[in-house]
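User: Could you go from structure to sequence for me? I need the amino acid at each position, not a summary. Structure tokens:
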């Protein structure tokens, strides 16, 4: 099982250089994690939270935060958003694996 999202605004803000919008979006993810009723909901909440923490760039973090805020805290919308990110990341990882392991 995936590790729970870390808590503690002040340490997160300094370690991951999060702005207020990012912290607010991260709070949405921790609330979603706290209210999860099954493993899939837990995974989805954690995926969104870890995407904020480990975004590859500030521009990527901005887009992730913006899409989380666009869900207006609606659990179903956030779950669907996470599923879409998961599907996208799976496709990207498969394509990367194929690129490096299959000769053309």
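Assistant: Here is the amino acid at each position, in order:
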């Amino acid at each position: 099982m995936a590790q729970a999202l870390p808590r503690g605004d002040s340490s997160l803000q300094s370690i991951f250089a999060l702005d207020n919008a990012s912290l607010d979006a991260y709070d949405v993810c921790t609330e979603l994690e706290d209210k999860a009723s099954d493993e899939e909901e837990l995974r989805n909440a954690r995926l969104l939270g870890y995407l904020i923490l480990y975004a590859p760039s500030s521009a990527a973090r901005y887009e992730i935060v913006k899409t989380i805020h666009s869900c207006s805290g609606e659990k179903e919308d956030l779950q669907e958003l996470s599923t879409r990110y998961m599907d996208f990341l799976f496709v990207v990882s498969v394509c990367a694996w194929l690129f490096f392991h299959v000769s053309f």
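One structural detail worth keeping in mind: The CA atoms of residues 65 and 94 lie 25 Å apart.
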